Amino acid sequence: QVQLVESGGGLVQAGGSLRLSCAASGDTTCISTMGWYRQAPEKERELVAIQANDGNIDYADSVKGRFTISRDNAKNTLYLQMNSLKAEDTGVYYCKVFTYWGQGTQVTVSS
User: Fold this and answer.
1) Residue 22 burial (C-beta neighbours within 10 Å; 0-12, 13-18, 19+)
2) How far apart are CA 111 and CA 90, in angstroms?
3) Angle value at C-alpha 57, between 91 and 7, nearest 5 degrees
4) Which residues contact 111 (CB under 8 A, 6 or more apart)?
5) Do the beta carbons of residue 71 and residue 51 sit within 8 Å?
6) What are the C-alpha distances in Å from 103 to residues 3, 5, 64?
7) For residue range 28-85, what is the model confidence (pLDDT) as tens digits?
8) Burial label, 82 (beta-carbon count in 10 A; 0-12, 13-18, 19+)
């Protein structure tokens, strides 16, 4: 099993920045792809960004050029640097590894 704990969410004005972290623990030896997802109110959960162990990265079109995903494999931690935040970035952000999800961290962007 893998446990995931997200942190770093909060309230920020449009144009501001936040950095999310996701710490993985448990059976982390076989972790390959780690990803960030988000769910806005009354919307489906959607992919934000994913990063594989080999460094391959993919972003949702809506965040390209504004968000940066990175990971520290030694610390089993995934990051999401979010810049130029928009109101439509508001939602609960989740970390995912295999079929495991974290509890989520709320990001609210005021316009």
Assistant:
1) buried
2) 10
3) 35
4) 14, 86, 87
5) yes
6) 10, 7, 25
7) 888 889 999 999 999 999 999 999 988 899 999 999 999 999 999 899 999 999 999 9
8) buried
